[in-house]
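Hi U.,

Before I forget, here's the chain from the pilot set. I'm dumping it here mostly so it's searchable later in email.
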Amino acid sequence: MKRKKGFLKESDFEIDLTPAINIALILVLIFITGAVTIFQTWLTVSSPKVRKAPNVQEQTMAEFKVNIHLSADGNILLNEEPVSFNKLDSLLPYLLIRSATGLVLVSADSQVEHGKVVEIIDLAKQKGAREVALLKRVR
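Structure:
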């Protein structure tokens, strides 16, 4: 039986899909391994931090506040108690020694001159305040 040149039957054509499947599987493996590293960099996990339990003695020392308020009528309130400037000068060192943070909170009415506020801040710093914070009171 002689076969004619140039004519092939349909059964002679077979597409070999094995290399294409191999490449597809290799790409899937690359994406799976690469996805692990990509998602690890995108996800942030915040773990809880371990803190030292506060000492009971520190808690009692932290409760002492030094809160100074200057009112518009010229009164000075030290921890909500009216005091004179001279008495504030003598009380501040004792209060700051008892305060664990050494923080002095200063607030004033809006009508108080800035110079008086600066004078109180200077006094607090001279008496040993480690930090001075200015507060705005809302009525």
